[in-house]
Design a protein that fits this description.
The complex is a heterodimer of chains A (306) and B (329).
Chain A (H helix, E strand, L loop, with lengths): L22 H28 L3 H7 L11 H8 L2 H33 L6 H10 L7 H11 L6 H5 L6 H13 L2 H9 L4 H12 L1 H16 L3 H6 L8 H21 L10 H21 L1 H10 L4
Chain B lengths: L2 H4 L13 H32 L10 E2 L5 H4 L1 E2 L3 H8 L1 H34 L6 H9 L6 H12 L5 H8 L14 H26 L3 H9 L4 H26 L6 H7 L7 H4 L2 H11 L3 H33 L7
Antiparallel strand pairs in B: 1-2
Helix pairs in contact in B: 4-15, 5-9, 5-11, 5-14, 6-9, 7-12, 11-15, 14-15
Classes of the chains: A mainly alpha (306), B mainly alpha (329).
Chain lengths: 306, 329
């Protein structure tokens, strides 16, 4: 497989010549701006409804402009913050630890695989790459986690699954291979050991690629709800996204009970409060995304199959 | 190896002009040991999570009991598969997976190429950065939150779509109870979620094209469409073909989040939204018919593997005829 070399990811060198603002360009601008708004619209809708008064929402429906502005939903959540704070703590914890662990493991694997003198380079590269072709899927993974590793209902169940992505290893390997060999040789001549070379030369030089991968992994952990769906039963360990799912499905079950004529016994967050929770759960990830989006765009172009 | 030629090494006295060749070998062993140690954490993880798990496919051929475990349960041959394909559900899930994926792949290709082209046409503009960011954003929103969005749009009494329909004088629809529109709803959500990433990949391919080609074409009076038709598209074709083949190779794998969250796992919608991944999840964790899940899983993974191998062989063919290196392996 071939991965685009870093030089392809530097488009500024070959900008299409500026054509000025002729009519077609304006049309293209309008079309793309509409598309971009379409991508943003659902997000705005949820934010707007989280700031809408509960009764107004039930009467007027969801709308992009709050029909009656209210911060009641957020007040309700922060009046009883234990559940959401706990979920925040779980999610933040696994995101931080998982990202640091994952990036370290990936870098430690990718660096030797980029060295031409490494005897096991070909077999290990193939081992890594082969995992991208054959996927045992959910069932074997579930059996491994629950019957053999016995990690269900522990924090490890949330942490272990996303550590090493074969795709990231290959991206990083390509990046390390692109670094000039002379640097490593010079360090070796100066008596640096392989660990020193790795930490003090390879890692600092690969910082942009590492940042990209770290961002991808962090967003993976932050947005993960499936792992909890499979393995977590105790509410203390609910990550944020899974908590959102549970609230949604409980509300659905309640609505069903009401239809059948039973009276619900639990008190559940209102519709606006649920939307506010969604905003609070997406907020940090969106901010992470907006601040580091250039790394993401670069990552996408770095990894593009040619 | 250039060590001996680059500089005299005073800190390692054993690298002498006479003995450096032998010493280099010794050196390589030491280096290789360190490198191998470095790979160990990730390597062990990969072996445990990607290779040992493969033993789990054995479940498809046994009458799995938690008590007896993977190796002591009774071997039943192909019974699980017979049972699996005697139910309508598995066949329905397979059909839904293939049809929906085919729709996502074909429409997705057209839309992502168009978006990439639009972005490319205005690539020099300083706004393009912001457009890119916004178009990529949905990719990084979790499916749970996406299901909240979709609910705000489709809720029966309060949803935006029904409000619009009412204003237009059309009878509102109970979306979560009507099967017919769901393939298209799922298509829309899948495009919303995925087009950003795939169009950026195509865009990066377009940027790599030599601009002189376009300049020459413009001098010859080629229109924008002609430039796309005769320059951009032919150059991008290998990338397009590879992406298509890869997508086809994964045609039996559905995005679990899309089908589980966005539909809110509504049973009424299963006839058109139940795919292999949701079926396997339900059999394994909800109804606990583990052997059934195992059989469906084996079938999905095995066919998927064959498809990947075939896809790669086809890419190889193309590669040989075009003298380019494209294949995955």
């Amino acid at each position: 497989m071939t991965v685009a070399s870093p030089s392809d990811a530097r488009p500024s060198l070959r900008l299409p010549t500026r054509r000025g603002f002729d009519a077609p360009t304006v049309v293209v601008h309008i079309a793309v701006a509409c598309l971009a708004m379409l991508c943003l619209f659902p997000l705005l809708l949820v934010v707007a409804s989280s700031f809408t008064d509960e009764i107004a929402l039930a009467r007027n429906g969801y709308s992009i402009i709050p029909s009656q502005f209210s911060v009641e939903a957020y007040v309700a959540i922060f009046n009883k913050p234990t559940v959401i704070l706990r979920a925040y703590a779980v999610t933040t914890g696994i995101t931080l630890v998982g990202t640091v662990l994952g990036v370290s493991m990936i870098a430690l694997l990718a660096y030797p695989l980029s060295r031409r003198d490494f005897i096991l380079r070909t077999p290990i590269s193939f081992m890594v790459f082969f995992t991208m072709l054959f996927n045992g899927g959910l069932v074997p993974y579930y059996i491994l986690m629950t019957q053999y590793l016995n990690v269900q209902n522990t924090i490890f169940a949330l942490l272990l699954p996303h550590l090493v992505g074969a795709y990231y290893v290959l991206i990083l390997r390509t990046y390390f291979s692109g670094l000039p060999d002379e640097l490593f040789e010079a360090a070796r001549v100066d008596g640096a050991g392989e660990w020193t070379i790795f930490w003090q030369i390879a890692v600092p030089l690969a910082r942009p690629a590492l940042a990209t991968i770290a961002l991808f992994i962090a967003l993976n952990y932050w947005n993960d709800w499936t792992t909890a769906l499979y393995f977590i039963r105790s509410p203390d360990l609910y990550p944020l996204q899974y908590l959102l799912y549970i609230i949604q499905s409980n509300a659905q079950a309640m609505a069903l009970q009401e239809q059948v004529g039973q009276i619900g016994t639990q008190k559940l967050p209102t519709e606006t409060a649920r939307m506010a929770m969604a905003v609070l759960a997406t907020g940090p990830a969106s901010i992470l995304f907006l601040f580091f989006q250039k790394y993401l765009v670069r990552g996408v172009t770095l990894g593009a199959f040619k | 190896m250039q060590v001996a030629q680059t500089a005299p090494n005073f800190r390692r006295p054993y690298v002498t002009p006479t003995g450096w060749r032998r010493q280099m070998k010794f050196h390589l062993i030491g280096r290789n040991l360190v490198w191998f140690t470095m790979t160990l954490p990730a390597l062990i993880w990969i072996i445990v999570f990607k290779y040992l798990t493969l033993a789990g496919v054995w479940i498809a051929f046994i009458d799995y009991k938690v008590r007896t475990g993977l190796f002591a349960s009774q071997f039943v041959g192909l019974k699980n598969f017979e049972f699996l394909f005697s139910t309508d559900t598995a066949i329905r899930a397979t059909r839904n997976t293939i049809l929906l994926n085919a729709m996502f792949i074909s429409v997705g290709l057209v839309v992502s190429l168009s978006v990439a082209w639009l972005l490319f046409e205005i690539y020099a503009s300083r706004f393009t950065r912001y457009y890119q960011t916004l178009i990529l954003l949905p990719r990084f929103i979790s499916w749970v939150v996406v299901s909240y969005f979709v609910y705000a749009l489709l809720a029966a009494d309060t949803g935006v779509v029904n409000s619009v329909l009412k204003q237009l004088g059309i009878a509102p629809l109970s979306w979560y109870r009507t099967t017919e529109p769901w393939p298209f709803i799922l298509l829309a959500v899948s495009l919303w979620h995925g087009v950003g990433l795939s169009s950026l990949i195509y865009l990066s391919g377009m940027i790599a094209i030599d601009t002189q080609l376009y300049e020459a074409a413009r001098i010859d009076g080629a229109s924008r469409w002609q430039q796309f038709r005769y320059i951009t598209f032919p150059i991008l074709l290998p990338l397009v073909i590879i992406n298509m083949l890869l997508a086809l190779a994964y045609v039996l794998n559905a995005d679990f989040g899309l089908f589980f969250q966005v539909t809110r796992d509504q049973q009424l919608l299963y006839p058109v939204t139940d795919v292999l991944d949701t079926y396997i999840y339900r059999s394994l964790i909800v109804t606990k018919t583990i052997s059934m899940a195992g059989a469906a899983q084996f079938y999905q993974s095995f066919v998927g593997f064959i498809l990947v191998i075939v896809a790669n062989a086809v890419v190889r063919r193309i590669e040989r005829s075009r003298n380019e290196s494209l294949a995955l392996f």
